[in-house]
Specification:
globular, Jelly Rolls, six-stranded mixed sheet, 17% helix, alpha+beta
């Protein structure tokens, strides 16, 4: 009986967990970072949460199709750069140094970023500048949707 109860508790605990695949993503200058793939709404809602601010990490949001996507940075404890990518992994827009927003920030005070995209990449603030990323650059990664 104890084993069954323990198993059920484990299942309930795992149900609240979100597991991310990690893949390498390369910039045009050859720098590679490991990104978490956020390919479901639940994963996209969490985004960067739970990751430490290191230059070798990021989150790659994968959307169902290329169309105008919106981004906002609420409940984040670090500043981010956000990169929008089309179906061909070409950068369509870049937003740098998006300031962190606390959990209790009013929604009306949170800026939105919009761009045509199939993918959106969150990286630590300063990454775009450090690697001289710009609209038109192509990022290399393999993603199975």
């Amino acid at each position: 009986m104890k084993k069954i109860a323990l198993f059920l508790l484990l299942l309930i605990g795992l149900n609240g967990c979100t597991f991310y695949r990690k893949i390498p993503l390369a910039f045009p200058d050859g720098f590679t970072l490991q990104v978490r793939v956020a390919d479901t709404y639940k994963k996209q809602e969490r985004g960067w949460l739970g990751q430490k601010n290191t230059p070798q990490k990021g989150v790659l949001f994968v959307f169902l199709r290329e169309e105008e996507q919106a981004y906002w940075n609420k409940n984040m404890l670090l500043d981010l750069d956000v990169i929008f990518l089309d179906n061909n992994r070409r950068i369509t827009a870049v937003y740098t140094h998006i300031p962190r927003r606390e959990k209790y920030t009013l929604n009306a005070e949170i800026p939105f970023a919009f761009a045509q995209a199939k993918y959106l990449l969150e990286v630590p603030a300063g990454t775009v500048e450090t690697h001289a990323l710009q609209v038109g650059d192509i990022l290399e990664f393999k993603e199975q949707v």
